[in-house]
Structure formats: structure tokens, C-alpha cells
Design a protein that fits this description.
With 160 residues, this protein is α+β, with helices and mostly antiparallel strands. The chain has one domain: Glutaredoxin (3-Layer(aba) Sandwich). It has helices at residues 40-51, 74-85, 104-112, 151-159, and strands at residues 7-9, 15-17, 25-31, 56-62, 128-131, 137-141. Strand 3 (25-31), helix 1 and strand 4 (56-62) form a beta-alpha-beta unit.
Length: 160
């Protein structure tokens, strides 16, 4: 099993088979529009623009489980991200990342890359997962880790 075995819903409601990203390095992030880390959208977009032609995709998964910091609907989320941060990387429909209703992709990501002390729970918005070209999880990064801090790991995975 790997990331390519999952499906998700695009922000516009269309089903997305993640196998369409096969052979690419993926940076998967749970996002929110009203979080102290929300300015990371800018860094995520910079990573996307710098590496998309080299085989990197940034996938944003809005989530409202942390302090109600993603209250908007799909249209509001998309408009906010485009207007405030010029986001062009793929955004998906709002999901849960923890609990009984956690999206299957996030169940898999948490199992493959547990957090500190082996905890599987996502601690907050903007937790990041870097995924190898073969769909296996490389590493989990804390919400406080800025996207630009991942550049060396992204380049390493592109070279694999």
C-alpha cells in the first residue's frame, strides 16, 4: 500500500485518484485559513512553483479540527487562498485528519510516519508529509517547520 492507493475529493467536489501523481515527490499538508501558520501558504506556493516542473506536487487538505480555524466552504477556501497567497497548487475538499472520521489517506500517513513519541495524531494545522516518488512516506514535519526548510529533502527525493 502507498499514497497512490487513495482517492480524495478536489476542492470543486470532483473525485481525484492520487495515482495520477505516481512518479512525483509529494508534499501533503493539512491547511487552515485562520491559523497562525496560515502564512505558510506563501512558502508552500513558492516550493510548488520552484519544483513543479521537476516533478513535485504540493497537495493541500483543508481541515477544521484545530480551533475551528477552517470554517469556510470550498468556494470561500479557494477564494481566500488565491486572493491572499496566489495558491495554484491543488487543494482538496475539507477533511478530518484525526478521529473516527479521519480521511483514509491521513490514517495511512499517520501510521507510516508517526509523530513525536510514536503518536499518530496530527497535532495542528500545517503538519507536513513528504512522500517519495514511489508513493512511500519519507518523513513527517511539524506545523512550525517552514516549507522552505524542506528544500534539501525535496531535492534529495528528486534525485532518488
Amino acid at each position: 500500500m502507498n499514497v497512490y492507493d487513495f482517492q480524495a475529493e478536489a476542492l470543486n467536489g470532483a473525485p481525484v485518484d492520487l495515482s495520477q501523481y505516481r512518479g512525483k515527490v509529494l508534499l501533503i499538508v493539512n491547511t487552515a485559513s485562520e491559523c497562525g501558520f496560515t502564512p505558510q501558504y506563501k512558502g508552500l506556493e513558492e516550493v510548488y512553483r520552484q519544483f513543479k516542473d521537476k516533478g513535485v506536487e504540493v497537495l493541500g487538505f483543508p481541515c477544521n479540527q484545530f480551533g475551528g480555524q477552517e470554517p469556510g466552504d470550498a468556494t470561500q477556501i479557494g477564494a481566500f487562498c488565491e486572493k491572499n497567497y496566489g495558491v495554484t497548487f491543488p487543494l482538496f475538499g475539507k477533511i478530518d485528519v484525526n478521529g473516527n472520521d479521519a480521511h483514509p489517506l491521513y490514517q495511512y500517513l499517520k501510521k507510516e510516519a508517526p509523530g513525536v513519541l510514536g503518536t499518530q495524531a496530527i497535532k495542528w494545522n500545517f503538519t507536513k508529509f513528504l512522500v517519495r516518488k514511489d508513493g512511500r512516506v519519507y518523513q513527517r514535519y511539524a506545523p512550525s517547520t517552514a516549507p522552505e526548510e524542506l528544500l534539501a529533502d525535496i531535492e534529495k527525493l528528486l534525485a532518488e
